[in-house]
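Structure in, sequence out. Go:
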């Protein structure tokens, strides 16, 4: 999991880029290529299981229980990847609840009215960027690309594990606003694929945030 320190002034590059100097800067073309590659890898893992299960049924109908287990593997593998992607928005680490009210107030000052209400209901912040619509959580972010039909999940965290939840979100949000390309470059890709796969694996209170991001990205 990558780390992000407090953001630099707007327009500056994130200093954490120096720690991943071997990575090419993330841009829209890279995201499209990565999504296609992720889709290809998913097919590579799942199609053999589907073919094997179908072959078992064709050769020996009595092997149906085994074939169903093989089909289950074909379903479970993409679901595990989606769970990993959804986990970037899940609460992480110590809560430091005593400092949370003040941190929530600071985060609220960074947001518009609609975004503030959404964050208080779901725990994640909606931010429109150059690459699409972002959802920023405590330990990562989900990017909904324009059109709303694909998401990229990024794992990244603040350097201070003692921060209250809203401060963690605020740090990542400021880093994203400072250098969106740098933020996407520093963060580790956890998943790329269909939004419905991630939505199924999100806690129920967070799902409206992904729905709102998809609507915003579709516009």
């Amino acid at each position: 999991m990558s780390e992000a320190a407090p953001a630099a002034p707007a327009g500056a590059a994130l200093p954490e880029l120096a720690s991943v100097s071997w990575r090419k800067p993330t841009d829209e073309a890279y995201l499209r290529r990565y999504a296609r590659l992720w889709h290809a890898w998913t097919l590579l893992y799942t199609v053999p299981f589907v073919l094997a299960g179908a072959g078992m049924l064709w050769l020996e109908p009595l092997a149906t229980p085994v074939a169903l287990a093989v089909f289950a593997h074909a379903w479970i593998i993409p679901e595990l990847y989606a769970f990993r992607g959804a986990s970037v928005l899940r609460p992480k680490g110590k809560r430091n609840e005593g400092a949370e009210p003040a941190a929530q107030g600071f985060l609220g000052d960074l947001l518009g009215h609609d975004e503030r209400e959404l964050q208080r209901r779901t725990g994640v912040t909606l931010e429109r960027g150059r690459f699409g619509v972002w959802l920023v959580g405590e330990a990562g972010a989900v990017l909904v690309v324009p059109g709303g039909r694909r998401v990229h999940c990024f794992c990244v965290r603040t350097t201070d594990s003692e921060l209250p939840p809203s401060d963690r979100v605020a740090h990542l949000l400021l880093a994203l606003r400072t250098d969106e390309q740098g933020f996407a470059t520093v963060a580790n890709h956890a998943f790329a694929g269909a939004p419905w796969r991630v939505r199924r694996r999100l806690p129920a209170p967070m799902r409206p945030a992904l729905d709102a991001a998809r609507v915003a990205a579709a516009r």
